[in-house]
């Protein structure tokens, strides 16, 4: 018995010594991802992803998201067929930051290569980015990306060794819906953007025509420019009620009914190598999208369709990204558009960028209150429960792509609002690993794209052209704190004199990010009434 006890004590001591020598977070689990030459003969540059789910369907790649399954990403450069991209405990992931945090269990795993292309830009920089294939910068379904089949495996970070995954198929082209009586689409290569990026860049639009458009070829119509994320769906989610009565909502039924305003609605497609949308302004990192939209896309739309080509007959709307764009287009082109109804716009004042005050915060992940360091909340419920911190949100983006290539929100703001970096990618507002802020970049954001600051600085010049044209709508409990920027903008606009802005702010007491006080058909009526009242005296309203 004493010998047995001594042996046990020796084993415990030995195990303790081995544990003490092991590196924190050490794990034997790793993935090796490759592609065969039968699928792709040339080397591959891009990002390798491994996705891990407890559910087989939908495919794990479709379960990746802000609140989705664990996934891990690793950059690859000139990877040859048969060579492997390694994903291990050192690879950053989200929501688990390391494979070592994965609980042992049975999982469904999938691998994917997101392909990058070489862009030789007009500014002399060479960058590697994902070339959008009209899917809206969604690597999970982007045509040409390489994906594996889903495998069921037993995983234990402390015991499982190497899991080898070989991608086996290329994702197919996007299917563009066919034109119908009401919905038309067009797409063309942009000379301006192609010249900037050194590769073909495309613009497009989805157009919703009013009832009677074909029957009245002499009639011209006012236009609602409906802004938002990339989508091939019709504006306002229109579905022809005659063809799909079970899917047609109230706007769709109203659109074709007697007495409803006869207007054209158009949604732009302008994906960039950084994001599914350009924010409709010129940028040193993203390119001259503002000019391309104003000088190429809108003229092409007005050439193809019978739109009234007058400022009073052009109004804007959109939510979130589209909310910012619709406001920015109105503010920077005050004489071209006749009014905007902007819902929950992205930060219109940079004192709150999803929780971050870029002017006073020294760290993008924490508020420093003398003796306390408090995590910055990025996303909340309408009851105030925090769903994501700023650090978690940024690590999610960093797992999706380095150098701002995540295709996500904070990265596109840095690309659009920020200065050019020495490496040809944008100069970041803060370090995405540590959160440390760069005040010089914050100053650049302010002078170029802070809408409230721009209006306050230039009100004497632009104010007279914006009277009655700015209408902002948001929930007081916006999930991304976008209502705070709206408060700052309201404070300034309500203080204006000579002229007073004569617009409106509408807030919902417990409204979240999607809060709206009106239905889509009510909004169309409001905007149509505004256009009729803004039309020059004597205008014949033949579109009614």
In words, what does this structure look like?
By secondary structure, the protein is an alpha+beta fold. It folds into 4 domains: 141 residues, no CATH class; 134 residues, Rossmann fold (3-Layer(aba) Sandwich); 115 residues, no CATH class; 83 residues, no CATH class. It is built from 11 helices and 26 strands. The strands form 7 sheets. An 8-stranded mixed sheet has the order 13-14-16-15-19-20-25-26, with helices on both faces. Strands 2, 3, 5, 6, 9, 10 and 12 form a 7-stranded antiparallel sheet that branches. Strand 19, helix 5 and strand 20 form a beta-alpha-beta unit. The chain is globular and about 80 Å long. The N terminus is likely disordered.
What does the secondary structure layout of this molecule look like, with pairings?
Blueprint: H1 2-21, E1 30-34, E2 44-53, E3 71-79, E4 85-87, E5 93-94, E6 105-115, E7 117-120, E8 126-129, E9 146-147, E10 151-155, E11 162-166, E12 169-170, E13 183-189, H2 191-197, E14 202-208, E15 223-227, H3 250-255, E16 264-269, E17 282-283, E18 287-288, H4 289-304, E19 314-319, H5 321-332, E20 340-343, E21 366-369, E22 372-375, E23 377-380, E24 386-389, H6 390-400, H7 409-417, H8 439-449, H9 451-466, E25 470-475, H10 482-495, E26 504-508, H11 520-534
